[in-house]
Specification:
By secondary structure, the chain is of the alpha+beta class. The protein has helices spanning 36-44, 57-111; strands spanning 2-10, 15-17, 20-22, 27-30, 48-56. The model has no long low-confidence stretch (mean pLDDT 83).
Length: 121
Amino acid sequence: MARPGIRISAQRDGFRRAGVRHPKKPTDYPVDRFSEDQLRQFLAEPMLSVSPVELEDDEDDKAAADKAAADKAAADRAAADKAAADKAAADKAAADNANAEKANAEKADAEKPKKGSGKSA
């Protein structure tokens, strides 16, 4: 379903009018986004090109879907990074534990009396 909108582009990127920064690239807005006073200022401004357009609701739906997909991808990356960090920490802890056990075993072996090391009579 189409709804009324306006397309605004500025002759100079970043031109400001009525408290709004306007890009040089034509940008579509719902007409109800601006007050009547702002719309009058836009229309009266020679630095702006303003024309009516029909906006499709599916554009808003697509933008929302794109944002949701990007948010999900970011959350998935964060979860994967956390899982990788947790696994690396667990692997390091296991290696540290194995090294400590090996060192303790070697120390215990070194402290045992060795056979045949005593004097025989």
